[in-house]
Amino acid sequence: MTGSISGEADLRHWLIDYLVTNIGCTPDEVDPDLSLADLGVSSRAAVVLSGELSELLGRTVSPIDFWEHP
Fold this sequence. Notes:
Elements: H1 8-22, H2 43-57, H3 64-68
């Protein structure tokens, strides 16, 4: 799966799809100005998301990053 994201737009699209599928929000609810916590992402879901992103990007993404850099 590594390397399937070629830019910021691809990553944004992947993240929106992920949130819609796994968190239950709608695409219209995903606002780049909202934190993941505001979208309903729990700490457990953030750990899972960080693992998915790490695999996708081929580098470590810490779930703490979601709270420190919303």
